[in-house]
Amino acid sequence: MGFFLETLLGGLMTGMLYSLVALGFVLIFKASGVFNFAQGAMVLFAALAMARFAEWIPKITGIEGALFGNVAGFVCATIVMFVLAWVIEKMVLRHLVNQEGTTLLMATLGITYFLEGAGQTIFGSDIYKIDVGMPKDPVTILESVFSGGILINKEDLIAALIAAFLVALLSLFFQKTATGRALRAVADDHQAAQSIGIPLNRIWVIVWCVAGITALVAGIIWGSKLGVQFSLSTVAMRALPVVILGGLTSVPGAIIGGLIIGVGEKLSEIYLGPMVGGGIEIWFAYVLALVFLLFRPQGLFGEKIIDRV
Amino acid sequence: MFYRENGQFKTSYSSDQQIFGITQDRWFVLGVMAFAAFVVPFIVDEYIFRAILIPFLILSLAALGVNILVGYCGQISLGSGAFMAVGAYAAYNFFVRIEGMPVILCLLLGGVFSTLVGVLFGIPSLRVRGLYLAIATLAAQFFCDWAFSRVKWFTNDSSSGSVSVSGFDVFGVSIDSPVAKYWFCLGFLIVFAALAKNLVRSAVGREWMAIRDMDVAAAVIGIRPMYAKLSAFAVSSFIIGVAGGLWGFVHLGSWEPAAFSVDRSFQLLFMVILGGMGSVMGSFMGAAFIVILPIVINIVLPELGGLVGWQVSTAAVTHAENMIFGALIVWFLIVEPHGLARLWSIGKQKLRLWPFPH
To answer: Which of A113, A121, A231, A240 would you mutate first to test chain B, the one with the most B CBs within 10 A?
Structure first.
């Protein structure tokens, strides 16, 4: 029982991290109808920027201290992501308005290649470390309930808390601020939003900025767990089933989908994996999402698709 | 001036129905085929065969398969690499396990197995569509990646996980030299291209296009969506499977599951989008573009660097290649979202009016 709960909690925490990446997908899809395949590359790019600036800036200014390095790195990486969002809107999206979904998908794949190349050209292609002072040692909880208690990785716990905090912040931003309302209006209906004077282009820049920030946070968390390297961009592949499971247009869907996928992955790996030779994590998530889709084609919380001739 | 259909009257149904209605087109295509078959082998060297021509032929066959599914039936698939892998591994198993099995039969049977897998993973298309389907087909990709690297039976219990095929012959002719390989692939490509072209302009093809344009409306006028979608998945994955077999047997010789990774799926989709969705010609153009572009960048970039006195390392070239490739794709989608095939047809239209466009 203790072991099962341990796996379950581990899955939930990994799931929270998936949701964080999935959130980036959902934000952009809701506001611009673009399925942003480049989210993974953005995570890599942001993490690289963070890791390198945190290293460079103390060197240039001569000010020591891990905190200063991290804060400076974070600020610079945020600026980089904002500039990136602006450039993408200016150079790519603006010219592809009203194109089909597939064309836009391909364009973001092009951006993916570009970012992977650019990130490694500018920031280097070694493995870098992000050290934001996350505790690495595991703790044991609930010792009084189970014999031996449940072993929890503190790092995962903090990461999950940060992710939850970010999600809460984002939903506040979406629900309570004027910009958030404008974003929701654009997501609802482009033309109607434009007709009441919401500037579409600016909204798109904002959305890509927000997605850039979630990419940065995801990059920092994943980066401090696994090290900043090329394989970070494949995190997006792990988050894709989350998106379709939860529904492409739903923020709560991304979170609950992430939790389901995280738990499903971990439990399947432990209890099902040994039967078929292990390593099933990666496709099990997809198959799980697929089975859900067969019953609810629009995902758990996606908008119902109504067909009219 | 030379490209006119004036005076070419159709006097029978068969001449009205032929693939290339204009005589000049017909001669042009025959000329290209004759040139590819009988002139090219004697004027290019081995490197070009190995690096450009053979990959181009095989990948355009695969792109043709993807185009049937994505371009004609409108079902976006990111699992093409998996179907190639199924074709390759099934053909391999037939080849090693059954003594004296003809290679062509192996490849076709590989295609049959790919068809089965394709139809299986096509079933979700009956419920989900668009981007949801695209991601759902990734399930096929990751499942096949896993199956071919973990299940020892598929790789004939090879210890390294890679399989190899060498020294096979077709009707007593050994497919060993680059020219023989080239002819072998060219034969496959011509046969399948003719089949595909005829299929997409028949009743089945029209059903696919109706489903692509609007599936609810198509269902209303009596087209069975299930039959149309699954048949598109079947035909497409058959062609992709055969291409996968060729890629393994002829181009690579020995391969690992990584040869058919998700990057391959993206590459094939790029070919279709850049070449032109819903166009057989577009598949060839897209394949040529994607095959040649990295090679050109690889050659040109170090030389450009040399001009301004930079020593460009291989890693830098790879990164720059990614950047240029990505930027070019975005640029291309912006200037011509309908692909190279559209440019081709615009060119033909202009040629018909030339030299008096008004």
So the answer is: A113
Instruction: For chain A, 309 residues long, give each residue's pLDDT as a single digit of tens.
Output: 677 888 888 888 888 888 888 888 888 887 777 888 888 899 999 999 988 888 888 888 777 777 788 888 889 999 999 999 999 988 888 888 777 777 888 889 899 999 988 988 888 878 887 777 666 666 666 666 666 666 777 777 888 888 888 888 888 888 888 888 888 888 777 788 889 998 888 888 998 998 899 899 988 888 887 778 887 777 778 888 888 888 888 888 888 888 888 888 888 888 877 777 667 777 888 888 888 888 887 777 777 767 776
Number of structural domains found in chain B? 1
At residue B276, what are phi and psi to the nearest 5 degrees?
A: 135, 120
Tokens 């399947």 correspond to: A268
- Does some domain include residue A290? no
Query: Would the CB atoms of A289 and B136 count as touching at under 8 Å?
Result: yes
* Host domain of residue B62: 44-253+263-353
Measured at the CA of B14, the angle between CA B12 and CA B16, to 5 degrees, comes to: 70
In this prediction the pTM is 0.88
| Beta-carbon-side half-sphere exposure of residue A15 (alpha carbons within 13 Å) | 25
Q: Return the pLDDT at A86.
A: 93
Instruction: With respect to residue B29, please indicate whether it lies within any of the assigned structural domains.
Output: no
Residue carrying the six token digits 């007593």 = B172
Nearest CA-CA partner of B325 in B351, B290, B354, B355: B290
Whether B237 is covered by a domain: the verdict is yes
DSSP state of B251: I
Of B256, B280, B281, B328, which is closest to residue B88 (Cα–Cα)? B256
Q: Which domain holds residue A98?
A: 2-233
Cβ distance of B135 and A297 shorter than 8 Å:
no
CB B234 within 8 A of CB B69: no
Please give the ipTM for the structure prediction. 0.83
A:177-236 residues touching chain B, CB 8 A cutoff: none
A209 to chain B, closest Cα gap in Å: 20
Residue A46 falls inside a structural domain? yes
Domain count, chain A: 1
Q: Residue B206 sits in a domain of what CATH number?
A: 1.10.3470
**φ, ψ (nearest 5 deg) of residue B20:** -105, 100
| Separation of alpha carbons B25 and A179, rounded Å | 57
Q: Is A274 on the interface with B (CB under 8 A)?
A: no
Cβ atoms of B112 and B106 closer than 8 Å: no
Closest CA to A157 of A174, A175, A177, A140: A140
A138 touches chain B (CB under 8 A): no
Task: Look at B321 and A117 and tell me if their CB atoms are within 8 Å.
Answer: yes
Asked if the structure places residue B22 within a domain, the reply is no
The string of DSSP letters for B46-111 reads HHHIIIIIHHHHHHHHHHHHHHIIIIIS----S-HHHHHHHHHHHHHHHHHHSTT--HHHHHHHHH
Nearest CA distance, B25 vs chain A (angstrom)? 30
Distance from CA of A184 to the nearest CA of B (A): 21
Q: Does A125 contact B at CB distance below 8 Å?
A: yes
Interface of A with B in 63-92 (CB under 8 A): 91-92
Q: What angle do CA A100, A103, A108 make, to 5 degrees?
A: 125
Rounded Cα–Cα distance for residues B291 and B63 (Å) = 12
